Structure prediction request, 357 residues.
Amino acid sequence: METIYNRLREHLDSMPNGFPASESGVEIEILKRVFTEEEASLFMQLKMVFETIQKISARTGITVDYLEKILPEMKRKGQIMGVAVKNFFLYKSIPYIVGIYEFQLPRMDKELAILFDKYDKEAFGSVFFSKKPAVLRAVPVGIEVKDDTKIEPYEDIAALIEGSKSWSVRDCICKTEKSLLGEKCDKPREVCLYFSPAEYAFNDDPVNRVITKEEAFQILKTSEEAGLVHMTSNVKAGVYFICNCCSCCCGVLRKYIAVSKNAAAKSNYIAVVDTDACIACGACEGRCQADAIRVKEYAVITDCIGCGLCISSCPVEAIKLVKRREADSVSVPANELEWMDIRAKERGMSDEYKKMI
Prediction:
């Protein structure tokens, strides 16, 4: 039977990121948990780009008074994205990932965790993570690249933090879900960093904990020491978060290892082993979150994602990070719009989705 939640599922699937149907219909149960029918109806009338309340009202015919009441509540529930720019509030719809799923952190309980996990296994994971471009890409840890190559600005993690004016942190949604499912790991959980070029951007955020720039750098250091991979948006412009991921919890890294190498985008750097210097201690193999290292007489690295974690664990400095050969370089979409265009073509979609932009 056609319901508003079926229409909402189709609407989410018409976004380049996708939201495929499952045989059991578990995704409909997720939508019912996340949205009321009223919220679902309004969600489908929003664009995937930011608009003021006044513009949304003029375009849809919905009164400003009504929007001023419901949109902040939908943002609070993690159904949409909203930002304040000076005296204006801007809102837009968001995909399931990255978006609705991650924003359910305050509402995550065991029942919802079970639904998310079931949907991932039944339908979402195999479809979403097999398509290009990947939603997240690895960013090298804060170490020096051992050649004459300068790290590109969009891959310079220190520059991303340094160039911002507001910083915050929240618990990792993946680690939270796994913990509720009885699969808690021993890695730090409060490691998802958000940053903004605007001052005080997170002061009214009910989920994120406001931190200083110095604290942001300390979280990066703690994450690296714990063997977590820095992951961020797979675009050159418009990066506003850094996830710190482990292969035991992170959906992206788990799918990279078990489902498809399209699940995570590699950085444009690669770890290279000095076989003469390597003492085959195995420290790098145990630290690699991409399951890309095997140690016999010396360490052998395959399918390196270019995070650099192995380098910081090597006791004899037998591994260095160098830029990939031009033929092996990884193309990064310029921005979110280009990412969506490439993903839509990969999925065989028409340009119909652009009506939502």
